[in-house]
Design brief:
It contains 13 helices and 15 strands. It is of the alpha/beta class.
């Protein structure tokens, strides 16, 4: 089996990817900061406590930092890794939409440069390719159909997160020209495990649902806003399948079902399940932010309101490739969403108002 070098192994997607790789029998080196607030074993235990004794010896922690030159890995470890690593999965990223540009740039842009420079340094060894986790929201405010091979479309960006991930992809082009094989995966909104609803953190959609459940907004700008959503297990399984069978170099993939779900549909499903009063939903151009209180404005910042409803994100090419491998990414539906909601209630993140 291949030996993998993984960044972001304590994150949401990265930790799920780590346990999946280990269950498949891969050897994994995990880059972890010495001051990381999260523990790799705790992350693995969260997803699959029963299998932990079988897989805990298949990975090794490498202390380092993507923000530092050579990832702050010493020369001895660099030489050792060069002789063992077959592929790199770069999942580490700053994803806080409220964080400033310079802070996110240090992680998402400079960190990616450092990873690719490290890959270049060890490319004379066994290294075959680099797999980079981006986001479909590099589309920014582009109006039109955004394809797998789309990138610089003259768009501007709603958040520093979108901009820094865009700049990281631009950087990847330079390293591809130097000879590195780098595939890019652009997930959309990623939610918890489809079968159990489990998630280590309640972000994006759940934060908005939490506000609706508190009935803070009487009016909300979410009418006619389509959302591309995938569960973390479907995402990881699709990416690993693409990675295993891909022969064409330097591709970009959109690994999610092409069918969108309207945000207002999810608000309605959640209101029925949780028992909150539905806010009046309006289109973004009809929404009058001046009518909000200071607290409401703050809560509205960097939420679903930042997403661009005018962009149609295509995943047809990626879906066709997966179907040729007899794999179908499941459509995100009401039953899946209800399992996710139930888990959020069981964890006391959201309170249910009705029995």
């Amino acid at each position: 089996m291949k030996t993998i070098f993984l960044t972001g192994g304590t994150g949401f997607i990265g930790s799920y990817l780590l346990q999946t790789l280990l269950l498949k029998g891969y050897k994994v080196f995990c880059l972890v900061r010495k001051d990381s607030p999260k523990n790799i074993l705790n992350c693995l235990e969260f997803w699959n406590k029963r299998s932990l004794p079988k897989i805990r010896n298949n990975f090794e922690i490498i202390n380092g930092d993507i923000r530092k030159s050579n990832l702050e890995i010493n020369s001895q470890d660099t030489l050792r890794l060069r002789g063992q690593i077959d592929e790199i999965f770069h999942c580490a990223a700053g994803t806080n939409l409220r964080e400033g540009f310079l802070s996110l740039k240090q992680v998402n842009v400079d960190g990616t440069f450092n990873i690719l420079s490290f890959a270049e340094k060890i490319s004379e060894g066994r290294l075959r390719k680099v797999n980079y986790f981006s986001t479909v929201y590099v589309c920014g405010d582009y109006q039109g159909k955004f394809m797998e091979d789309s990138l610089d479309m003259g768009q501007s960006f709603n958040t520093s997160y979108e901009k820094t991930k865009f700049l990281a992809e631009k950087q990847i082009d330079l390293f591809r020209k130097k000879g590195l094989w780098i595939d890019i995966y652009r997930p959309p909104i990623v939610l918890g495990e489809s079968s159990s609803g489990k998630t280590p953190s309640f972000q994006s959609i759940f934060q908005a649902i939490h506000l609706f459940n508190m009935e803070i907004f009487d009016v909300y700008p979410a009418k006619d806003v389509p959302s591309n959503i995938i569960c973390v297990d479907s995402l990881v399984n699709a990416i690993l399948l693409i990675n295993e069978f891909s022969k064409e170099k330097n591709c970009t993939y959109h690994p999610f079902h092409e069918t969108t779900i309207l945000f207002e549909e999810m608000i309605y499903i959640a209101s029925k399940y949780l028992g909150y009063k539905m806010p009046k939903l309006v289109r973004r151009e009809e929404f009058k932010i001046g009518n909000l209180s200071a607290i409401q404005r703050r809560l509205l910042e960097n939420t679903i309101f930042t997403f661009n409803p005018s962009t149609s994100i295509s995943s047809i090419k990626t879906m066709q490739g997966l179907r040729s491998l007899n794999f179908e990414i499941p459509r995100f539906d009401e039953n899946t969403f209800l399992r996710l909601l139930k888990y959020s209630v069981d964890c006391n993140f959201i309170k249910r108002k009705t029995r």
